[in-house]
Write the structure tokens for this entry.
Amino acid sequence: NFVKNYHTSEYPNFKKMTQEKIGYIKVNLDFPGSTFIQECLDLFELRKPFTYSKHQELDTVEGWNGVILADNGRSRATPMSNAPKLTKWFKEHPCFDFSDHMNTRIHIHYLEPNCYIPLHQDYDTDTLKGLNFAVTQPKDCKFYVDEYGVIPFEQPGDVFLCQIGKQHCVYNNSDEMRI
């Protein structure tokens, strides 16, 4: 909800994209993912398991957990001040609006080597809504979306708008953590 709205006239292929079902769009935000690796690793000890999505409860899965950076006072939230460089990048980027501190947050997911994020669905309708930023991107870590296949993350800094209204999962078949 914190991504600013833009007029569809700015995107000449918008009508075609919305008429055809698509699973992802690569977004050029010049995200300096590798700049934030150490800051994300410093938060690793604060991680908690992810056990739910908007539409389903998930089993706790070994090796998948994270930190939710937010300044909303909720029990699961870690104050944004714990990741000053990452938070500054998002707050200063013209695409994002952090004025509603109760509803803006940054999720940092840690997917350990040879672990997975279970198959789940965040919304009950086709929704090209989830922005996924690669802080790290191991070669053998794959993000799968039902009906669309693999989202082609290749390197730290890749950003994709992902279809999270379909069943999706991530498998990290590498010996590195995916953040």
